[in-house]
Design a protein that fits this description.
InterPro entries: CARBOXYPEPT_ZN_2 (IPR057247), M14A-like_propep (IPR036990), M14A_act_pep (IPR003146), Peptidase_M14 (IPR000834)
Strand content: 15-25%
Strand order of the largest sheet: 7-8-10-9-13-16-14-15
GO biological process, one term: proteolysis
Shape: globular
GO molecular function: metallocarboxypeptidase activity; zinc ion binding
Pfam families: Peptidase_M14, Propep_M14
CATH architecture of one domain: 3-Layer(aba) Sandwich
Distance between the termini: 51 Å
Largest sheet: 8 strands, mixed
Structural class: alpha/beta
CATH topology of one domain: Aminopeptidase
Helix content: 25-40%
Bound molecules: zinc ion
Keywords: Carboxypeptidase, Disulfide bond, Hydrolase, Metal-binding, Metalloprotease, Protease, Signal, Zinc
Low-confidence stretches: 1-38, 48-62, 78-103, 554-584
CATH superfamily of one domain: Zn peptidases
Length: about 575
């Protein structure tokens, strides 16, 4: 195989009908040459050159040549990768899945979710390489031996994936969802009987969910998903009726020209002496529950403010809330255009213009979109991210190459907010995780990790109290996988925000239906998440008031082993990590 070490000379921005849409969710050819930000290499020329010319943050003089893909990678090669190179199997195995075109016309329905379970390190690594090529849409990325890997496939890809598994010795391959689009229709359509039942109960007083399913005072139901325009209009009505306490703001425009709007809530709003808590959702288009939960958070806070509830007023004495329900409105609106088409509904990235890449056979493939949660300037492009424009985890041409992420950066570093933000909370789906920095590798923590961990433990405890929902907490590599370029790591390291968290909402890590949450779970999900975020609000407010932490987090060690834990005192939390590393 010939290898080249060329650098990106330009990017093609085309948007042909064949490439518009979600075609790149399905298979594409890969091993790009020219026109993409990948540096190719071979054993002789190595990678002792900058990864990309003219980009200061990438001026690396070291790195290694990943011979499985013949691309330069930053950092050091792992033992596992060296071992796989010795086996020389990865390229051959992955090449077997390159023939599917990115054209929507080639989709062979039904679209399914297939689960694989790697049983040794070599199998894990082969799946990691497959994941990073972006050929397939991994709903659950490979992490370790024994951990399940879920992949969305059409029928042609399924056959190829099964062949891949067979060649690679992965014996556990099963179909989790036999028809994803049918499942979407069942769970998300207006015909969903459980959601319907909740709406019918509205006003009967029999259920709090039912009450919240009706229109709120500002004309939005909490029982459903809503178009971006309706959410913005709703925030506008709140601000119009409560001008001293709520204000709509914009952090700038998206690729397609939409304003990214949010709502500031304070008592009064705009008091520059207050500390700030930033909450956002919807950076990933398909994660509708994250948008819904952020909207619900606003609803709940406004509701409490209207009633002048004492606990909220006390928090707002020292804190102002900055809430952005949809950071990626282009992507969100795209997923709503054909909500029963899995290839549209499951779009994850932004809607940035096509970037094109040429495969080894000279065929050009173009894909839209950047994974905005890999585009922040925190160890950009290092791990858990992809160079390939068609990948679901494509990190973009450079850190902050996208207007959406630049807008977040500029708003947070704006002189109005800088130094005042004490918490950054970003909502995602799914897996029921409360993630704190850093997610680049294991044992990578900020100096004040004990504080972040303590608040995370309390938050997941609060979440669990309502319905018993179990969340894990930890860094990315501790509880899911390592990745870089995420917003909360950037918020912590570069913006200096103390309590920085990524929250992955329902369903659980072990769920088979992933992003497709039954509509009847919307309000319960939002309610329990509100309780978790409230812990962050309360912590920031207490610290702003100069109060000393009154709550013991680590329960005293019993004098002797006991099978029955001492009952918790009111308000007390217990650190259970000694027996169950991540659940609380
Ligand atoms: Zn996400």
């Amino acid at each position: 195989m010939n290898s080249i070490c060329g650098f990106m000379s330009g990017v093609s921005n085309v948007d042909t009908p064949a490439h518009r849409g979600a075609g790149n969710v399905l298979g594409v050819t890969f091993l790009f040459a020219r026109k993409v930000d990948v540096v190719f290499c071979n054993k002789s020329n190595g990678c002792k050159r900058p990864f990309e010319e003219g980009k200061k943050n990438l001026q690396l003089t070291t790195g290694f040549c990943d011979h499985t893909k013949n691309v330069c990678r930053r950092g050091r090669q792992t033992t596992l990768e060296i071992m796989m190179l010795a086996r020389g199997v990865v390229v051959a195995l992955i090449v077997g899945i390159v023939s599917v075109s990115a054209n929507l016309d080639t989709v062979e329905r039904p679209i399914q979710i297939v689960q694989l379970v790697p049983t040794d390190d070599a199998q894990v690594l082969s799946l990691v390489h497959l994941y990073e090529t972006g050929i397939l849409d991994f709903w659950r990325a490979p992490t370790k031996v024994g951990a399940t890997v879920d992949v969305m496939v059409d029928q042609r890809q399924k056959a190829q994936l099964e062949a891949f598994a067979l060649e690679n010795g992965i014996s556990t391959v099963k179909t989790l969802v036999t028809d994803l689009e049918q499942m979407i229709t069942d769970q998300e359509s207006d015909a969903n009987w459980r959601a319907k039942a909740i709406k019918m109960l509205h006003g009967s007083g029999r259920s709090r969910d039912a009450l919240e399913a009706g229109m709120d005072d500002f004309g939005l139901s909490m029982a459903d998903y809503h178009p971006y325009g309706d959410i913005v209009a709703w925030m506008g009505r709140i601000a119009a009726r409560m001008p001293t306490q709520a204000r709509v703001f914009s952090i700038g425009r998206t690729v397609e020209g939409r304003e990214i709007n949010g709502l500031k809530i304070g008592n009064p709003v705009g008091d520059s002496s207050k500390r700030i808590i930033w909450i956002d959702g919807g950076i990933h288009a398909r994660e509708w529950t994250a948008v819904h939960t952020t909207v619900y958070f606003i609803y709940k806070i406004i509701n409490k403010l209207q009633r002048r509830e004492a606990d909220l007023l006390k928090v707002l004495d020292s804190v102002e809330l900055v809430v952005i329900p949809v950071l990626n409105p282009d992507g969100y609106e795209f997923t709503r255009t054909e909500p029963r088409n899995a290839l549209v509904r499951m779009w994850r990235k932004s809607r940035s213009n096509d970037r094109c890449a040429t495969d080894r056979n000279g065929k050009q493939t173009c894909c839209k979109g950047v994974d905005l949660n890999r585009n922040f300037d925190y160890r950009w492009a290092e791990t858990g991210t992809s160079f390939h424009p068609c990948s679901e985890i494509y990190h973009g041409a450079g850190a902050f190459s996208e207007p959406e992420t630049r807008n977040v950066r500029d708003a947070i570093l704006n002189s109005d907010l800088t130094g005042r933000i004490d918490a950054y909370v970003t909502l995602h789906a799914y897996s029921q995780l409360w993630i704190y920095p850093y997610s680049n590798k294991k044992q990578s923590y900020p100096a004040d990790i004990a504080d972040l961990k303590k608040v995370a433990a309390r938050a997941v405890n609060a979440i669990g109290k309502l319905f018993g929902t179990r969340y894990m907490h930890g860094t990315g590599p501790e509880i899911i996988y390592a990745y870089t370029g995420g917003s909360s790591d950037w918020a912590k390291e570069k913006a200096g925000i103390k309590y920085s968290y990524t929250i992955e909402l329902r369903p659980s890590y072990y769920s088979w239906n992933g992003f497709v949450l039954d509509k009847s779970q919307l309000i319960p999900t939002a309610r329990e998440t509100y309780d978790g975020i409230w812990v962050v609000l309360d912590t920031v407010a207490r610290e702003a008031r100069g109060e000393v932490d009154p709550v013991p987090v680590v329960a005293p060690t019993p004098a002797r082993p006991t099978t029955t834990p001492r009952p918790l005192a009111p308000g007390e939390c217990r650190d259970v990590e000694s027996t169950d590393p991540h659940f609380a």
